[in-house]
Amino acid sequence: MSIWRSIGKKLAQVPTADAKNVARQRLLVATALGAACFTLIAGQVVNLSTVDTSGKRHHRATAEVQERGKILDRNGRVLATSLPAYLLYADPAEIMNPYEATLKLSEILPGMTEEGIFSKLTQKGRYAELSWRVSPATYAKALENGVVGVYGKKRITRFYPQKEEAAHVIGVVNKDSQGLAGIEAGMNTVLAKGEDVHLSVDIAVQAILRKEIEEQMAKFEAIGGAGVVLDVKTGELLALASLPQYDANHFGSADDNAKFNRATKGTYELGSTFKILNTAMALESRTFDITDKIDVVSPLRVGRFPIRDYHPEKKPLNVAEVMVVSSNIGSARMADEMGADLQKKYLGSLGLLSRLELEVPEVASPQIPTIWRRANVMTISYGHGISVTPTHLAAAIATTVGNGTRVHPSLIKGGVKKDFDEQVFSAETVGAIRATMRRVVNHKRGTGKKANAKGYVVGGKTGTSEKHKVGGYDKKLNIASFAATFPAHDPRYVVVVMVDEPKGQKFSHGFSTGGWVAAPAVRRFITRAAPLLNVAPVDEKSPEIRQLLAVDLPQLDAEKRHASF
Questions:
Q1: For residue 50, is pLDDT > 60?
Q2: Catalytic annotation on 272?
Q3: Does residue 294 carry a pLDDT above 90?
Q4: Rg of the chain in Å (alpha carbons)
């Protein structure tokens, strides 16, 4: 028994006759009210006299805000809606026995301590807020308890039936039903008018993506993760996951780490996934052809810093092979030949130098060099020295593997309608990139073999980068990522998975790289989600598909060594 229950039993006094009469009248009203609450979903509660913050009496409080529009997923599932609720408060001057009242209220307000309730009931003034949001049923119980001096004010509250799922996308509102985060904030004007908002997100696809990232985070003891699923043709975001999550119904109790949107607000050096873009730039600018040989054997230094490959090569590689085995040296030489001006031009056309125009406020601008030196050009080719969000990367890759026109991501069903299409890459470049990405996944020396979902012709690229620390990089802390498209011969979707600070495990031979950490999540996601996305498995060995994805890899086909992931 708590100390408050002990004190309450000793000090609770028998109510006076007048108090009994008041309590009896309130109980009669509460009985009728309780019945209504259980027979009607949105139970209509009989309003009693209330007291405002100035102590003046008034009658029949009404809802303080207009009902907001619903937030729905692309298939009409409710993600956010408005429900009737009550603000529960007390007039401390009318509380005749705060000990007894505390005991009674603690039974229906489990979120508050007895000490907290007692403090509210005994504070100075005529108004003490007990809970800004209780259900009609809870309000009815408060009246049934017969505590004189406790009142309720009708209001509209926001309810999120999916709880944690897609919480970073949906967002939350404040006590006044104004958007604070996510779509609730970004589309606040529309929702406040009572109009519904239909998202591009498929909540079932979202749940699959979230689960697969969570599994890899658990396996590799990571601190966080993010995932993006983007429709190549429309720019619609079918899923946008950030982990850890929070329950949108309890936003106030979530910690800052859970509230942070890693998919759109977090910027990261996403490593060798940038080799997809670097290769496309080199081909589109005609600086290189896909079969041109690159010197990946000779040492390469920029200033006093060496650029190394994880697995040193013995012979020159062509452009496609550089991407398949993820050669930093080869990528850096290609970018160096191309130069800063062309690199900046293409990065700008891909949207990687500016803030995304998404429908949520939690969107970060990329972190780019203030002065574009030769060293920057070379390291950016393999995803170091530039930090972008996972959603930036997904959109850039969708542009690269789609029809070559700029893809603008959107969280609204139907996507963003632009007056003109900005052509970034030609059909020839797009075809070469699709074929090379496929070989990253299905070649014996490809770094993305663990992403190979049978029948879905996955193409992709691994990325592993060290995290920043004061004075440089921390070799013990990685960002592991994988960027994929499927089916590679006719891309419908892009999938990006990022895992933050994974730790090497015994089963991964100590590796915490993109191929070990992120690629398996992509494979499982595609296998599970493809049927929901209307993508059927195909015969990957059919002549038509093989012809579309043909790329010449003479040096790699002659080699018997296997690259690590």
A1: no
A2: yes
A3: yes
A4: 30
Name the nearest CA neighbour of 238 among 370, 72, 413, 395: 413
d(CA 153, CA 255): 30
- pLDDT (0 to 100) of residue 239: 98
Active-site residue identified among 106, 177, 272, 381: 272
CA end-to-end span of the chain, whole Å?
A: 59
User: What is the SS3 assignment for 447-494?
Assistant: CCHHHCCCCCCCEEEEEEEEEEECCEEEEEEEEEEEEEEECCCCCCEE
Reported as a single tens digit per residue, the pLDDT across 487-499 is 999 999 999 999 9
Q: Is the pLDDT of residue 26 over 80?
A: no
Helix (H, G, I), strand (E, B) or coil at 227: strand
The answer to whether the peptide bond before residue 520 is cis (omega within 30 degrees of 0) is no
The alpha carbon of residue 541 and the mean position of all alpha carbons in its chain are separated, in whole angstroms, by: 36
- The C-alpha torsion from 186 through 192 and 196 to 199, rounded to 10°, is 10
pLDDT given for residue 138 in this prediction: 83
Residues 204-558: name the CATH superfamily. Answer: DD-peptidase/beta-lactamase superfamily (3.40.710.10)
State how far the Cα of 35 lies from the Cα of 40, in Å rounded to an integer. Answer: 9
Pull the structure tokens for residue 386: 């530039």
- At 4 the pLDDT is 53
- Residue among 460, 431, 458 nearest 538 (CA): 458
- Give the alpha-carbon dihedral of 447, 385, 314, 518, to 10 degrees: -10
Joined tokens for residue 246: 């929070």
More confident site: 346 or 132:
346
DSSP 8-state code for residue 404:
S
**Whole-prediction pTM value?**
0.83
Q: What type of residue is 233?
A: K
Which of 209-223, 343-357, 410-424 has the least mean pLDDT?
A: 410-424
Reported as a single tens digit per residue, the pLDDT across 183-217 is 999 999 999 999 999 999 999 999 999 999 999 99
- Look up residue 89 and give its amino acid: Y
CATH for 3-70+83-161, among 2.40.160, 3.30.1360, 3.40.50, 3.90.1310? 3.90.1310
Q: Which of 127, 126, 102, 125 is nearest to 113 (CA)?
A: 102
Q: What is the distance between the alpha carbons of residues 172 and 166, in angstroms, rounded to a whole number? A: 11
378 vs 370: CA distance, rounded Å: 15
Contact 81, 193 (CB under 8 A): no
Block residue for tokens 């999916």 = 162
- pLDDT (mean) for 44-71: 50
Query: To which H or E segment does residue 515 belong?
Result: helix 514-517
Domain ranges of the chain: 3-70+83-161, 204-558
State what percent of residues in the chain have pLDDT above 70: 87
Contacts for 538-542 with beta carbons within 8 Å, 24 or more apart? Answer: 538/455, 538/456, 538/457, 538/487, 540/454, 540/455, 540/457
Please give the DSSP secondary-structure letter assigned to residue 67. Answer: P
Whether the CB-CB separation of 26 and 138 falls below 8 Å is answered with no
